[in-house]
Write a structure and sequence with these properties.
Layout: E1 3-7, H1 19-27, E2 30-33, H2 36-45, E3 52-54, H3 60-71, E4 76-79, H4 91-100, E5 104-108, H5 113-120, E6 128-133, H6 138-147, E7 154-159, H7 164-175, E8 179-184, E9 192-197, H8 198-204, E10 212-216, H9 226-241, H10 246-257, H11 261-271
Parallel strand pairs: 1-4, 1-5, 2-3, 2-4, 6-7
Antiparallel strand pairs: 7-10, 8-9, 8-10
Helix pairs in contact: 3-4, 6-7, 7-8, 9-10, 9-11, 10-11
Length: 273
């Protein structure tokens, strides 16, 4: 029975590839690559001459039947442009199709931007919640982020350079000015790890460039007692009915009750969502 190998490739530095990955890439009959041009930089570096074919989000549906047919006669290695295939790319579809067709699927683990960012974040990473790329529209971003506001595990997400600042603004708006670690261009020449608050990150990343993996600290606040919640909600509702905005109502109620502004703001969001 032929095998589909899911092979992790370097996320930047080509020296991070594993010995096993190089052996598999050299032994299989075909490499299914997200972008053959990117993959050939790795293959050329290590003198691997295995033929490759493109398999990406644009052609995955049409390519899967031919790749399954090829699996009937030889082994295939599935690779993405960087890291582990199947995470935020169509690799999972090919894996699922191969499994359903009865083929063996084996992982060749290695570099991953996710675990790399977690390891250097300096935060408690015993548990975490992976959010992937945040939604492109602000309404979607806010909805997703607000749904994690009470999550005590750290949050792990990806972002593009042209949306990074908008994401940081929405993180601060939804979660408060939390501590985070922003990892840029991991293992590459201009690698950078920024550690600080969301507001500090906005000042630092004035013109974002590169690829970003972000680790956001979990909610460290003590829960507000239900009785207090009821009183705070009533007070916030009364202020809003009188035309008072969040930026004025939240600090006012926080001062009145002694509760953290984050907790009061979260209740504001809950009653007006």
């Amino acid at each position: 029975m032929q095998i589909l190998y899911v092979v992790s490739t370097p996320i930047g530095n080509l020296e991070d590839v594993t010995i096993r990955a190089l052996r598999i890439l050299g032994e299989v009959d075909l490499i299914a690559a997200e972008d053959t041009r990117v993959t050939h930089r790795l293959l050329d570096r290590y003198n691997i001459t295995t033929p490759s074919t493109s398999y990406n989000e644009h052609n995955s549906r049409t390519k899967i039947p031919s790749l399954l047919a090829k699996l009937g006669t030889g082994d295939i290695a599935l690779v993405s442009d960087a890291g582990m295939p199947g995470i935020n790319d169509p690799g999972a579809e090919l894996v699922r199709a191969a499994v359903e067709a009865g083929f063996t699927v084996l992982s060749v683990p290695g570099p991953s931007a996710l675990t790399t960012a977690l390891s250097v974040s300096g935060m408690n990473i015993d548990q975490f919640v992976y959010l992937g790329f945040l939604p492109k529209k602000q309404s979607g971003r806010l909805k997703l982020l607000r749904s994690t506001a009470s999550e005590k595990r750290c949050l792990l997400l990806l972002e593009t350079p042209h949306r990074l600042r908008d994401a940081l603004i929405d993180i601060a708006d939804s979660l408060g000015d939390r501590e985070l670690a922003i990892c840029r261009e991991l293992t590459k020449l201009h690698e950078e790890v920024f550690r600080g608050s969301a507001s500090e990150a906005l000042c630092h990343f004035n013109r974002p460039r590169g690829e970003f993996t972000i680790v956001v600290e979990g909610n460290k606040e003590q829960p507000v007692p239900e009785l207090d919640q009821s009183k705070v909600r009533s007070r916030l509702s009364a202020l809003r009915a009188n035309g008072v905005r969040a930026k004025d109502a939240v600090p006012k109620v926080a001062n009145e009750t002694g509760l953290p502004k984050r907790s009061v703001y979260r209740l504001w969001l809950e009653i007006h969502s």
